[in-house]
Amino acid sequence: MTEAHTPESFLPLKPNWFHVLLSLADEEQHGYGIMQEVLDRTGGKLRLWPATLYGTIKRLMEEDLLEESDERPSAELDDARRRYYRLTPLGRSVLKAESERLEDLVRVIRGKRGLTKSEAES
C-alpha cells in the first residue's frame, strides 16, 4: 500500500472484492473455500474462477485488506499447498463500510414511490 487509505476511499467496492472480503468475515479460508462460499452464497450466479480469485486476493493483499495467515488446521484436515487468508483490521473496516453503503442503498430503493417491498426485493 503506497498511502494511508480510509475505508470509505475504497467504496464502492468491486463485486469480486466484496465477495472475497465477505467470505472471510467469519473465518480464515483458503482459496478453494472462498470460491465455494461465493458460489453457494450467490446460488451459483457468481463463480470466481482461479485466475480471477487469485488476482483479486493479490490486489486485496497489496491494499492491506487481506493477509496470509500463519495458522493452519491440523495436518490430517489440511493440504500443505493451501494458503489461508484473513481480513486485516482495514479489510474488516472496509467490509463494514461497504455493507452499510449497500444497506443505505436498499433503504432508498424500498422508499422509492411505486416500488413495494416485495417488488424491491425481486
Question: What does the model show?
Answer:
- The longest helix has 23 residues, at 89-111.
- With 122 residues, this protein is mainly α.
- The protein has one domain: Winged helix-like DNA-binding domain superfamily/Winged helix DNA-binding domain (Arc Repressor Mutant, subunit A, Orthogonal Bundle), CATH 1.10.10.
- The mean pLDDT is 88.
- The chain starts with 14 loop residues before the first helix and ends with a helix.
- It has five helices and three strands; from the N terminus they run H-E-H-H-E-E-H-H.
- Pfam families: PadR.
- Residues 20-96 form the Transcription regulator PadR N-terminal domain.
- This is Helix-turn-helix transcriptional regulator.
Write the layout of secondary structure elements.
Blueprint: H1 15-23, E1 29-30, H2 31-41, H3 50-62, E2 66-68, E3 84-87, H4 89-111, H5 117-121
Antiparallel strand pairs: 1-3, 2-3
Give structural attributes:
mainly alpha, Arc Repressor Mutant, subunit A, globular, three-stranded antiparallel sheet
Structure summarized in a few sentences:
InterPro entries: Metal_resp_DNA-bind_regulator, Tscrpt_reg_PadR_N, WH-like_DNA-bd_sf, WH_DNA-bd_sf. The chain has 122 residues and is mainly α.
Strand order of the largest sheet: 1-3-2
CA-atom Rg in angstroms:
17 Å
Which secondary-structure class do the elements indicate?
mainly alpha
CATH hierarchy class name: Mainly Alpha
The helix/strand series, from N terminus to C terminus, equals HEHHEEHH
CATH H-level superfamily: Winged helix-like DNA-binding domain superfamily/Winged helix DNA-binding domain
Mean pLDDT: 88
Q: Which band does the percent of strand residues land in?
A: 5-15%
| Second CATH tier, the architecture | Orthogonal Bundle
Distance between the termini: 39 Å
Largest sheet data = 3 strands, antiparallel
The tally of beta strands, per DSSP, is 3
Pfam families: PadR
InterPro entries: Metal_resp_DNA-bind_regulator, Tscrpt_reg_PadR_N, WH-like_DNA-bd_sf, WH_DNA-bd_sf
Protein name: Helix-turn-helix transcriptional regulator
